[in-house]
Amino acid sequence: MIEKRVAAEWLKSMDHDVAASDGESTPVEPDSASLSASTSSSTATIDEEPNQHTPEPDEHSSLLPYKPRTREAKRSWLASKFPTTTILFSSPRLNAAVYGGFIHTMLIVSFDAILPLFVIKTFHWKATAGGLVFLAITIPSLLSTFIGMLSDRYGARFTSLFGFALVTPALGLLGLCKDDSIPSQVLLNVFLVLIGLGLNFILTPLAADVFYEAEILAHKNPSLFGVMGAFAQVYSLFNAALGLAAIVGPGLAGTLYDRTSWQITVGVLAGLCAVGSLPVWRYTGSAKRGLDGEGKGRIKGSV
Fold it and tell me: What span, in angstroms and rounded, lies between the C-alpha atoms of 89 and 95?
């Protein structure tokens, strides 16, 4: 079957041959071989030409153009099956607060594992004195209400960073307590008080910041978290981090103390504390968050 375009070109060529023959009455009909060659060459020419005049495809076209996949189609299996969990883990502010809580609890349980062994071995204290030494860490927790007031006024970032600034050098300076002398015992208690105070400056603001971020996430995704918000899920995530720290801390500190020394152990803990302050400094908010009268999220101060 010959296309119309090919036939028209062939007829035009035929008329030109007739005009050039100076009046010959009988035109020469092309044979089948030449017609086939002309058809093939014309078809090849058509295929080689760019589709400059090709109409835009529509719903009546036999082949519709390829449509790129949307963002919803590219979501991972975890995001499609557990959307709320994915949103929580994708929040840098929430992850920073959870990691800070992890470091706080890991330090506390690390002292639970190695501090009694150290004072019994170095100071030759009995078990009663080894237990009472923890008062130096726990008594500063009575100031938690005051620390919470400071966090509400100045924001979680600066308050928690102040706690890291207290704990990190105090942990490193614990290495100075190395013999059974009165100055070493006094220094131990002084540094433990600073560590206990700094740990409260770390935990109180970060725990509040976790719930501030839960409030913001719930208002950004009301269809996922519902009217009850994301407070329970955020608290469970924070609590899971604390439980994991309770597992990691004693094993890490106990292993270091058995295989190295007291100075190396507290130095490693000081380094971990310093590293824990980095995401808090980068992502933890410096603003107080809440709800305004219209039920929308608000931010006071800088973030």
Answer: 7
- The whole-angstrom separation of Cα 213 and Cα 202 is 17
Assign 287 to helix, strand or coil. Answer: coil
Task: Give the C-alpha separation, 265 to 254, whole Å.
Answer: 9
How far apart, in Å, do the first and last CA atoms of the chain sit? 74
pLDDT band for position 69 (50/70/90)? low
291 closest CA partner among 209, 208, 207, 212 = 212
Q: What is the percentage of the chain residues whose pLDDT exceeds 90?
A: 49
| The pLDDT value given to residue 299 | 43
- Single pTM value for the model: 0.68
d(CA 202, CA 222): 30
By the 8 A CB rule, do 202 and 104 touch?
A: yes
CB 96 within 8 A of CB 236: no
Residue pair 284/93 in contact (Cβ under 8 Å)? The answer is: yes
E strand or H helix that includes residue 228: none
Q: Determine how β-strand 297-300 pairs with β-strand 288-291.
A: antiparallel
Tell me the two tokens of residue 130: 């080894």
